[in-house]
Amino acid sequence: MNLSEYKTEPQLRRQQLRMLEMLKELHRICIKHDIKYWLSSGTLLGAARHKGFIPWDDDLDIEMERKDYIRLMKILPKELNVDYVVQTQKTDKNYMPVFPKIRDTKSDVTEHDKSGLKYTGIFVDIFIMEKGSLPLLKMAGFIHSNLCSMKYKKKRFPFTVSAFSGLFYKTVANVLYPVFRIFKNNENKFYHTFGSGMGGFLLHRDIEDIYPLTTIEFEGLMFNAPKNTDGYLRKIYGDYMKLPDSIDETHISQVRFFD
User: What would the mean pLDDT of 226-254 be, rounded to a whole number?
Assistant: First the structure.
């Protein structure tokens, strides 16, 4: 791919800038309350390779330890800009991921295979990282992936199964996953929290690559980043500075703005 020939569509760029405003708000709150976070995945890749968003990227990701996530969830309702809301299973009964999103209330996005959500605006993902047993993480990912299928792909499951998916969610999240945490390993690794998903969600992060945190330029501003950004990205993407031959499918198919 020749990056000089790629032009970000105006609508996508507007979405990226809205996500940037949301990231600035999260950064403000985290710095104020000494909550550690870092840019992650494609967002960190964009910072390292493009000094901002990957030109075709339509989401924004950060990571933090579970202990910091717990603190943040107590603070956000009091501190968060009124234009944004926290989306979890507690605030939106049809939301099934175990990690929260911060949603913009002045936009609407159409996501693949999602329906019935209370909050549907442009979002920032907050991925929760913790130590864990890889076999149990795989089991939790399998369980939760099927739980999401029950909710979002109703044609494949009986109505009664889909109707009780919220109860199943509470059972696995509040009973099963805490039991799994008892058996966490003592390796110097972080994983996505139990139930995050399969595939890339099972890739670990070396703690020594993360702490102490540093900063990195993203869209002309400085945000938190892992100490060893190069090592972090190479473990996920390999030669991450090389542009892809083609662009993967995006997460969002349509965006509407209300302001």
Answer: 88
Task: Please choose, from the candidates 224, 216, 226, the residue with its C-alpha nearest in 3D space to the C-alpha of residue 50.
Answer: 216
How far apart CA 150 and CA 166 sit, in angstroms, is 10
Q: What average pLDDT does range 9-22 have in this prediction?
A: 96
| Amino acid 113: pLDDT | 59
Nearest Cα neighbor of 129 from 53, 181, 54, 183 is: 181
| Phi, psi dihedrals of residue 181, rounded to the nearest 5° | -65, -20
Q: Smallest Cα–Cα separation from 87: which of 78, 77, 79? A: 77
User: How many CB atoms neighbour CB 255 within 10 A?
Assistant: 17
**Between vectors from CA 23 to CA 17 and to CA 24, what angle results, nearest 5°?**
90
| Residue 146 main-chain phi, psi, to 5 deg | -70, -30
Q: What's CA 235's distance to the chain center, in Å? A: 18
pLDDT at position 160 is 46
What are the DSSP calls for 194-258, one per residue? TTS-SGGGG--EEHHHHSSPEEEEETTEEEEE-TTHHHHHHHHHSSTTSPPSSPPPPSEEEEEE-
More confident position, 188 or 1? 188
Range in 30-34, 167-171, 185-189, 191-195 with the lowest mean pLDDT: 167-171
Q: Measured between alpha carbons, how far is 215 from 227 in angstroms, rounded to an integer?
A: 8
Domain spans of the chain, in order of start: 3-257
Q: Which two tokens stand for residue 161?
A: 């199964």
Cα-based torsion angle of the residue sequence 233, 200, 73, 218 in order, rounded to the nearest 10 degrees? 30
pTM above threshold 0.90: yes
